[in-house]
Amino acid sequence: MNNSGLPIPNSFFLTAGAAEGYTPLNAFDAALLDAGVGDCNLVKLTSIIPPSCRKVAPFRPRFGSLIPVAFASMNANLPGEVIAAAVACGIPADDSLPGVVMEYSAKGTAKNAEAIVRDMVSHAFKIRNRELKETLSISIEHRVEKLGAVFASVVFGYE
User: Fold this and answer.
1) Phi, psi (rounded to 5 degrees) for 118
2) pTM (two decimals)
3) Where are the alpha helices (DSSP H) in the chain?
């Protein structure tokens, strides 16, 4: 807890999913299920990793949990089109400082999306005048059959 009375996450993991669906929302929901967070209430965050927050192994949140996430997603309905989503975490050398999360989604490959989002992390650290210890990232791509979705996220937790 901090002086605002709100809990501060102290752990995180990266996950991604892709799927087809009947509607854009159904495709997004199926991509969440593929990523392991589909039966939760996601609370979208901006892009800051709290100081000393550590990476943990992915876990399945309890059904209905309020889960803080930073994420990128995209839907498309052009058969054959490739869509991608990626997130990257910048971990500072000084663990008393916050890190950053960058999100990106676009038409194209996971490899390209991941390269872009990792570069975004580097830039975020440069403008903060902060030393970057490491960059963690995940990406996913999907070739659309009828109506597809991709989702990449950083899931925060409290241990």
Assistant:
1) -70, -40
2) 0.94
3) 24-35, 110-128
